[in-house]
Amino acid sequence: MTLWLAKRKPDPSPALQLACRAQHFRRWEIPRSSYPMTRPGYLTWRAKLKSQAATQLSELLTSSEIQPPLSQEEIDRIAALVRKEDLKNDEEAQILEDVACLVFLDDQFDDFEKKSEMDDEKIINILKKTWAKMSPAGHALALQMDMSDRAKLLIQKALGTRNTHQSTTSPPQPPPLESLISTHDFVTVAATFFPPKTYAFVSSAATDGITHRRNSSTYSDITLRPRVLRDVSSISLATTILGQAVSSPIYASPTSLGKTVHPEGEKEIGRACKELGIAQVISTSASFTVSEILDAINSHQQSSFSNHPVFFQLYVDRETHKSEALLSTAFCPPPPGGGGGHAPLPVLFLTVDSPVVGKREADERVPHNPTTTTTINPPMTNSPPTPDTKGSSLGRTTASFLSPSLTWKQTIPWLRSILPKETKLVLKGIQSASDAFLASETPGINGIVLSNHGGRNLDTTPPSIQVLLEIHKFYPQVFDKIDVLIDGGIMRGTDIFKALCLGAKGVGIGRGILWGLGSGYGREGVKRYVGILNDELEITMALCGVTNVGACRAGYVNTSVVDHLLPNSGHP
Ligand SMILES: Cc1cc2nc3c(=O)[nH]c(=O)nc-3n(C[C@H](O)[C@H](O)[C@H](O)COP(=O)(O)O)c2cc1C
C-alpha cells in the first residue's frame, strides 16, 4: 500500500498515510464466510469491515501514547478515510481507493484469476468493477503496471467492452498544461506519465523519506503575519543572487541526467530559464557538456529578459585533474581572437553534502532498461550506470567518480587557486549553523546553499528551513558576510516568501523543474511550473503588505511552532 501510495500521491498527508497503512486493520476477525456468498452478502461484509476497522483504529489511536498526541479531529479524519466516506468528493478518500485497487491489480490479481472457480467472464466483471472505482490518475498507473500477458489481455477485454477510448493501445495523454494550476498537480501528472525508472530516480529520497517530507512540512508550520493598508498595486520579484540580476529569487537547482526526463534535458531547462530570466545551475552530471548547454541557451533567441545567469555545480572527481580540466572549460576566458568558447561562468557551486551517495530505495528497486544505459552516461563524468547487488539506483551507480576526501583545509584553497579571482564560490549542502559560520569565516567563500540534497542523502537531517532558523539563533552575523541560499521542499509561493523573510537571497527548485520538464511538456512546462510559484509569491507578498524582495523581513513570519525543534547549543 505504501509503495503505491508513493506513486499515486508522493506527498501524502499524515492522515492519509495512516489510513492507508490501516486499510485492512484486523480484517481477519471477520472472515468472508461469515456473510452469505451473494452480492448483498459481499457488500454487507465490506461495509462491516470498513466500519469495524475505523472504530478499532480510533480506539487504538485515542489510547496510544503517540507523541505529540493526535487530536480528536485528526483521529476522526483518519477514521473517515478508512470508511472511505464521501468517496466521490473527497480527493484523499479517492486516492486511498485507487491505492487499494492498484495493490489488488499488482499483487493479488495474477493469483486470484488462476482460482478454479474463476472463468474469464467473472474476472472481466471484477476488473470492470475495480476500474469503475478508480480515478483517471489511478487508471493511468494501472495501465503502466508490469503485469503478466494474460492479465493484460483480460484488462484489455474488460476495458474494451466498457470504454474503448481507454484501451491499452491508446494510452492516456498528459493533461493540457493550462489545466495544471499548482505544483502538486505536476507531481500527480509525473507519477502517471513519467517512465517508472525516471519517476523513481527523480522522486526518490533517502531511506524513509523523513527529511524529504519535513523539508516541505516545516514550511507549513511557520505562519505568516500579514500587514494591511499598504499600497501593493505594484509588486516586483526582481532581485540579485550572488551579484547577478534576476527576475525572481527562484533558481533551477543543479539536477543530473536531464535526458532521462526530456531528450533535450538541461538544454531545454536553460532555454526555459532564459525565457524566465532566472538563474540555472548546471550539474557536473548533466546529460550534456557545459559547452553544449551554453550553445543551446545562447542560440535560443526568445527572451524579454536581459539577464539569465548560468552557474556551474561541481562534484569533485577522485582524479582531481579531471575536475581541473572541467573547471577550465567553464571558468576560463575564451581564447583571444574570438576562436570559440564561452564567457567564463560567474559562480561555482561546490556540492559538499555528497562524499558518498545516500540510500535511495525507490531508485534502487526499479531496474534500469539496459538498452538506455549508454544514452544516460553523463558526458562530463563518463560514468554510465551499472546495476550491482545493492540495486539499480541511477543516483548511486553514476556517482562512483565522487571524491569522498574533500576538506575545508585543502579543497577550498585548491579551488581558489584554479578559479579566476572574480568567480564566486558557493558551498552547496550546508546542514548546520556551525558549518554556515565556518563558511562565512573561510576566505574565498562567497555563499552557501542550505540544502540536504532534497532529502536524498542522509535521512533525518534537519529540514533546510530549520537550518536557516538555527543560523539566526547562533550565528546571525553570517547573513552580513555571505549570501545564504536555500533549497528543498519548496512547493508554494508562501514557502519562498518565508525563506526570503528569514534571510535567504535565493530559493532553489530541484525536482519541481523536472516535473515541469517531463511528461512531454518541455520548456513550456518548466515555465508554467516556475510561473505558478512566481504568481503565488506575488500574491503572498501583496497579502502581507510587501512590494519587493528586499523588503521581506523576519517580522512577517511566526516560527514559534518550529523554534522548540532547534538545538540548545551550536555544534560540537
Ligand atoms: C533528480 C535529481 C538530481 C539531482 N542531481 C544533483 C546534482 O547533480 N548535483 C547537486 O548538487 N544536487 C543534485 N540534486 C539536488 C538538487 O540540486 C537540490 O538540492 C534538491 O533537489 C532540492 O530539493 P527539491 O527537489 O525538494 O526542490 C538532484 C536532485 C534531484 C531530484
Automatic annotation (TrEMBL):
Stretches with biased composition (Low complexity): 368-380
Keywords of the record: Oxidoreductase
Domain FMN hydroxy acid dehydrogenase: 175-562
Annotated GO MF terms: oxidoreductase activity
Region Disordered, annotated ranges: 359-396
Entry keyword annotation includes Transferase: no
Needed cofactors: FMN
InterPro entries per record: Aldolase_TIM (IPR013785), DUF4202 (IPR025255), FMN-dep_DH (IPR000262), FMN_HAD (IPR037396)
One Pfam family here: FMN_dh
Gene3D superfamilies xrefs: Aldolase class I (3.20.20.70)
Name this polypeptide is given: Cytochrome b2
Organism of this sequence: Rhypophila decipiens
